[in-house]
Amino acid sequence: MNSTLRRATVIGCGPIGTSLALVLTRAGITVSLADPNPGKVTGAALAGAGTPLVRGAPPADVVVATP
């Protein structure tokens, strides 16, 4: 199987989710961020971990949920 990961959604922008999103972003993957706390999404986005998930965004190749 030959597949390419291009888009990921990370649900949970605490330390684990933000760290994972940063690694994915640095690997050239487009990352969308989601968290029940909008402030955490903003913080992760400001750290360069991705952009906030918006309605109508293209589907992700993978979705990761972190505690």
UniProtKB/TrEMBL annotation:
Record SUPFAM superfamilies: NAD(P)-binding Rossmann-fold domains
InterPro entries in the record: 3-OHacyl-CoA_DH_NAD-bd, NAD(P)-bd_dom_sf
Pfam families reported in the protein's UniProt record: 3HCDH_N
Residue intervals of the 3-hydroxyacyl-CoA dehydrogenase NAD binding domain: 8-44
Biological process per Gene Ontology, one example term: fatty acid metabolic process
A GO term, aspect molecular function: NAD+ binding
Domain of life: Bacteria
Record-given protein name: Prephenate dehydrogenase/arogenate dehydrogenase family protein
Organism for this UniProt entry: Streptomyces alkaliphilus
